[in-house]
Amino acid sequence: MPDTKIPPRVEDPGYWRFRADNTRKLASESKDPNAKTILLNVAEQYERLARLAEERQRQTPAKPA
User: Fold this and answer.
1) Residues spanned by the domain of 51
2) Alpha helices in 2-32 (DSSP H)
3) d(CA 16, CA 9)
4) Count: domains in the chain
5) In 3-60, where do the E strands start and end?
């Protein structure tokens, strides 16, 4: 049976915000208005994933050390 555990970085809001920041940087450097629009939309979706990861962290009880 395949391992269905979610990789830790997917649960990390910082991971998604890092990707959003990098994508916004690419958008700011783009000379093509269509590409810029697409990249900014992708960055917003990364921000959405960061918010979802934060929500999952709030709903998941902390594991004992």
Assistant:
1) 9-58
2) 13-29
3) 8
4) 1
5) none
Instruction: Give domain status of residue 18, yes or no.
Output: yes
Cα-only R_g, the chain: 15
Separation CA 46–CA 20 (nearest Å): 5
Q: Say if 65 falls within a structural domain.
A: no
Q: Work out the number of other CB atoms within 10 angstroms of the CB of residue 56.
A: 13
Q: Which of 55-59's residues contact partners 24+ apart within 8 Å by CB, and which partners?
A: 56/11, 57/11, 57/13
* Residues in the chain, overall count: 65
The pLDDT tens digits of the residues spanning 7-53 come to 778 889 999 999 999 999 999 999 999 999 999 999 999 999 999 99
Residue 39 located in a structural domain = yes
Residue 50: inside a domain, yes or no?
yes
Give pTM, 2 decimals: 0.80
